[in-house]
Amino acid sequence: MAVRKSVILTAAGLISWVSLAVAATCGGSDPAPTPTPAPDSPTPAATPTAAPSLTAQATATRAAQSASPAVATATTAAPTPTRAPSPTNPPPTATPTKPPATANPTATEAPAAIECPVDSDTCARAREIVTAWRRSDLDRLVALARPISVACPVPRPTGLGGPYPLCDGATVDGELRTGYLWSSGTHGGLRNETAFRGGLRELLALELKLLSIGCRDSGQRICDGDFVLAFGIAKFGTLEVVYDIPVFVDGQDFGLVGALPRTLYSCSETAQPPCERVLGGRATAPDYRSWGGADTPAPSPDWTFFRWTPF
Predict the structure, then answer these.
(1) Is the peptide bond before 8 cis (omega within 30 degrees of 0)?
(2) What's the CA gap between 284 and 276, in Å, rounded?
(3) Residues 115-152: b if buried by 16+ CB within 10 A, e if exposed
């Protein structure tokens, strides 16, 4: 009986030693339970938790490694979704710009700003007028104006033109009055300062830009006397208009004498007058001096208009 108990104890101890050795080799985290001597009436020992085998660990590792590249590929290959631009909501780079308030005709767009293209004396006079125009300084423009003196004919001649409405109501032939040039686009005449000031106010409200300066070029862009500043382009329905601001020069004295509209035609097709006000080039000299009476000199030879857009 003693021998059998000794054998049982020896077998139990051997089983415990083997369990510890296997657990240490496999790297299990939980040690096997410490064996206790078997009682006289032995009860079944609790089965220790088996550590995962090396084969199972290797199989699980290879499975994880083989799955990882597929996950990475799927992550990097998936493109970042982008929202397609809607026709009603274009991307910022495609946002249309607002067109200018005053439309310019096709092929007559004013060039980039340049320096005054004529002689220094003419430029100095022109800049005074252009600066006041740009600032919408009505009082300064009127101060820079110079009225024309005219003898009113009595009785009034028939037909269009003449010094009217300035001479309306004159009762004595040869009555002297002073006024400023005006034009309806088809015929012109003279008007008083009140009407001239009102006309300038309306033009300044259009915010017209300077397009060119024209004069009789005596050579090397040296103006000989009078010059014209052309402003535009004003659009009235389908009608496009440029405005002449004629300036008389007599020695050191100068002054603007009126504001006259000129209808602009298709410059891209025929380039007929007054397209030179926009594109530059030669044109028949304006005979504005003849509007003051019969004793004024004849129109000068052809003028040249030089493009000039300082603002």
Answers:
(1) no
(2) 10
(3) ebbbbeebbebbebbbebbeeeebeebbebbebbebbb
The values of phi and psi at residue 149, to 5°, are: -95, 135
- The pLDDT tens digits of the residues spanning 73-111 come to 333 444 444 444 443 333 333 333 333 434 333 334 445
Cα–Cα distance for residue pair 110/114, rounded to 1 Å: 11
Q: For residue 110, give both structure tokens.
A: 């004013």
Amino acid at position 126, single letter: A
For 257-282, b/e burial (b = at least 16 CB within 10 A) is bbbbbbebeebeeeeebbbbbbbbbe
Q: Are 213 and 228 in contact (CB under 8 A)?
A: yes
Tens of pLDDT, residues 33-55: 444 444 444 444 444 444 444 34
What is the pTM for the complete model shown? Answer: 0.63
pLDDT higher than threshold 50 for residue 17: no
Cα gap 310→288, rounded to integer Å: 25
